[in-house]
Design brief:
Keywords: Kinase, Transferase. This protein is an alpha/beta fold and 330 residues long. The chain contains 13 helices and ten strands.
């Protein structure tokens, strides 16, 4: 069997899979819905993953019944604790996609996607927020990332909820005036915020707090103090996660990479990233927003596990930086 890696980036909002050969060529790729076990349960997650894995095998032209890959590298949102990683590994391994399987948190894939060696710190802020760090000697620092019960602050849903909260308090007089009020009303297409709140209460409109996150950044960028305070708090949290991780691994004085990713941070704009850079104890040019999808990091970790030649990495990265180079139907 040709040695292949089945790379899985399983996020809260989407799942990406890629089948990559040992030379770093993308044989097929597919995207599907988010399938975090924390959100939809383990059984439903596995159904989604199974469907996508079989589809990527079909797109790659593999004969039915042939193992999809030599190795599955699955990096998943919701794999936050070692017990969860092991449960998911056993469940995925039982699917028979490959001879070996590794499951880790999706933040590790982000770190590998943004570095040449998987060493450094990665902070992801998408639907939620998380951070991992890996030292040159292999030591790892990570957070449980279970939401408020584990001390977390941030993520698109949290920020969007803050925008609505500030708008509501500005509307009824408990809070300071803010341009978020008009922006949120316009988002819901109602005459007043009170009307929007009532419709939300009765479930008459679909509402995902993540949808208000871009609006929050737009209003903050225009100079609104209330919105700006939330964005500043996010910067503080991103910096704190990275600083704590660096300190716990004794890397605060080392020129290590800090990788930022997730839909919130990649869409936040230069002002937010520059503010993070200015407050971290590493050279500014070592703090970067990832420029390839996290599934590339999952694939690279899989290629590392199979001992791929160094040339495989630039070939894979080039394919994802130049989407036209990817295989048709991928």
């Amino acid at each position: 069997m040709t040695e292949r890696v089945l790379a899985v980036d399983g996020g809260n909002s989407k799942t990406a899979m890629a089948l990559v050969d040992l030379d770093g060529r993308v044989l097929a790729q597919v995207r599907g819905p988010g399938a975090s076990p924390q959100n939809i349960g383990l059984d439903r997650s596995l159904e989604v993953f199974e469907g996508l894995a079989r589809e990527v095998a079909r797109r790659a032209g593999l004969p039915p019944g042939e193992p999809i890959a030599a190795h599955t590298a699955a990096y998943l949102a919701g794999a936050d604790l070692p017990r969860e990683e092991e449960d998911l590994r056993a469940a995925i391994e039982a699917r028979g996609w490959s001879a070996t399987t590794v499951v880790g948190n999706d933040t590790f894939a982000l770190l590998r996607a943004g570095t040449a060696d998987g060493i450094g710190v990665a902070v992801v802020c998408g639907a939620g927020i998380n951070c991992v760090a890996v030292a040159p000697d292999g030591r790892v620092h990570r957070f449980p990332a279970l939401g408020r019960i584990s001390g977390d602050w941030g993520g698109g849903a949290h920020l969007g909820s803050e925008a609505l909260w500030l708008a509501a308090r500005a509307d009824d007089g408990r809070g300071e005036p803010t341009a978020l009020l008009d922006a949120v009303v316009a988002h819901f297409g109602t005459a007043t915020l009170a009307e929007a709140v009532e419709r939300l209460h009765f479930g008459e409109v679909e509402f995902d707090p993540n949808d208000l996150c871009p609006l929050l950044f737009e209003v903050a960028a225009a100079g609104d103090p209330a919105a700006r305070s939330v964005v500043d708090r996010l910067v503080e949290e991103v910096v704190l996660l990275a600083r704590v991780s660096l300190a716990r691994l004794g890397l605060s004085a080392e020129p290590v990479d800090v990788v930022l990713g997730g839909g919130v941070l990649t869409g936040a704009g230069d002002a937010v990233v520059d503010a993070v850079r200015a407050r971290l104890p590493v050279p500014a040019d070592r703090v970067r927003v990832v420029d390839v999808p996290p599934v590339v990091g999952a694939a690279l970790l899989g290629l590392d596990a199979l001992g791929a030649e160094p040339a495989a990495e630039p070939r894979l990265r080039t394919a994802y930086r130049e989407p036209a180079a990817l295989v048709a139907g991928g």
